[in-house]
From TrEMBL:
<dbReference type="InterPro" id="IPR016181">
    <property type="entry name" value="Acyl_CoA_acyltransferase"/>
</dbReference>
<comment type="function">
    <text>Functions in the N-end rule pathway of protein degradation where it conjugates Leu, Phe and, less efficiently, Met from aminoacyl-tRNAs to the N-termini of proteins containing an N-terminal arginine or lysine.</text>
</comment>
<keyword id="KW-0012">Acyltransferase</keyword>
<protein>
    <recommendedName>
        <fullName>Leucyl/phenylalanyl-tRNA--protein transferase</fullName>
        <ecNumber>2.3.2.6</ecNumber>
    </recommendedName>
</protein>
<keyword id="KW-0963">Cytoplasm</keyword>
<dbReference type="InterPro" id="IPR042221">
    <property type="entry name" value="Leu/Phe-tRNA_Trfase_N"/>
</dbReference>
<comment type="similarity">
    <text>Belongs to the L/F-transferase family.</text>
</comment>
<dbReference type="InterPro" id="IPR004616">
    <property type="entry name" value="Leu/Phe-tRNA_Trfase"/>
</dbReference>
<dbReference type="GO" id="GO:0030163">
    <property type="term" value="P:protein catabolic process"/>
</dbReference>
<dbReference type="GO" id="GO:0005737">
    <property type="term" value="C:cytoplasm"/>
</dbReference>
<dbReference type="Pfam" id="PF03588">
    <property type="entry name" value="Leu_Phe_trans"/>
</dbReference>
<dbReference type="GO" id="GO:0008914">
    <property type="term" value="F:leucyl-tRNA--protein transferase activity"/>
</dbReference>
<keyword id="KW-0808">Transferase</keyword>
<dbReference type="InterPro" id="IPR042203">
    <property type="entry name" value="Leu/Phe-tRNA_Trfase_C"/>
</dbReference>
Length: 237
């Protein structure tokens, strides 16, 4: 069995992502810490943490990688009807703490979002790196949400929840179009799911994903203020 490197919290580094295991797919390293510096270094190199409370910190870079190119977002006919009804409003960075905790508490299968992770990603939010996206119903109630990291022209989606039918799908459509307007190259979805694939996400080889990161991670987006302006055009669509 291939041995995995244990990361020293006092040394800021990662092994190359292409050294990750095939089984389990993408497991790259253990240990280290969740400092903001280490997390940013990880995402810049196609790596993310995913572990449970009873485990050491596990670092992953799966192959293939599930991604969504913003211009490839898919809007089904039924979802167009929902959008035309204008049942939802989408905002950003209004309730990061609430969103990340709901992402942790609403998953029936349990969560990897530990208290340590909540603290670290909340600090990234204060630094302007992590963002929350909220979706509201007509009564002004939270219908769903998502959080992730924005570095360069890359957005790294971390977790999403939905409290009402189609809320997460409407959120994804607004986010993809907004990212496209701001000049973002890619939305990282990490691991594929049926929900993501129906929205237009697809898997690409890890090396292709890393190549996109290298080209885009140091490029400043067209807008750094996370105020959503994009709106669904309406019935004429």
């Amino acid at each position: 069995m291939t041995s995995l490197p244990w990361l020293d919290p006092d040394q800021l580094w990662f092994p190359p992502a292409n050294e990750a295991l095939d089984d389990p797919d993408g497991l790259l390293a253990l240990g280290g810490d969740l400092s903001t510096e280490r997390l940013i270094l990880a995402y810049r190199n196609g790596i993310f943490p995913w572990y449970s409370d009873d485990q050491p910190i596990l670092w992953w870079s799966p192959n293939p990688r599930c991604v969504l190119f913003p211009n490839e977002i898919h809007v089904s006919r039924s979802l167009r009807r929902t959008l035309n009804q204008q049942r939802f409003q989408v905002t950003a960075d209004r309730h990061f703490g609430r969103i990340i905790r709901l992402c942790a508490s609403t998953r029936a299968e349990g969560t990897w979002i530990t208290e340590e992770m909540i603290a670290s990603y909340s600090e990234l939010h204060r630094m302007g790196v992590a963002h929350s996206i909220e979706i509201w119903n007509r009564r002004g109630e939270l219908a769903g949400g998502m959080y992730g990291l924005a570095i360069g022209r890359c957005f790294f989606g971390e977790s999403m929840f939905s409290l009402e039918t189609n809320a997460s799908k409407v959120l994804m459509i607004h986010l993809a179009h907004q990212l496209q307007l701001w000049g973002y190259r890619i939305m990282d979805c990490q691991v594929e799911s049926r929900h993501l694939l129906t929205m237009g996400a697809r898997t690409i080889p890890r090396e292709e994903f890393l190549s996109i990161l290298r080209m885009s991670i140091d490029q400043k987006p067209d807008q750094t203020d996370w105020t959503f302006q994009w709106r669904w055009p309406g019935p004429e669509e």
